[in-house]
Amino acid sequence: MPHYEECNELYKELSNCIKSVYMAKLLDRCHDQEQALLRCMKKEYIKRKRESRLATLEGRIC
User: Which tens digits make up the pLDDT trace of 44-62?
Assistant: First the structure.
């Protein structure tokens, strides 16, 4: 299942940060980008979980 465009953009930013700064990941230079990506992915997970739960409940009612 594809990620939301917002998360894809954040992933690209993190990837570029890591590529642009030698040892950036080890020195925690890209922490803000990484945290933003994790928040986006969590929001995406919660939304998909809610949609799945609603679909299940609708299936039981019908």
Answer: 999 999 999 998 888 776 5
Taking each helix axis from N to C end, the angle separating 5-20 and 31-61, rounded to the nearest 10 degrees, works out to 160
Q: Write the CB contacts of 21 (distance below 8 Å, at least 6 apart in sequence).
A: 27, 29, 30
The runs of H, that is alpha helices, within the chain are 5-20, 24-27, 31-61
State the pTM of this model: 0.76
Report the SS3 class of residue 2: coil
Q: How far is CA 24 from the centre of its chain?
A: 20
Of the candidates 33, 23, 17, 21, the residue with the CA atom closest to the CA atom of residue 41: 33
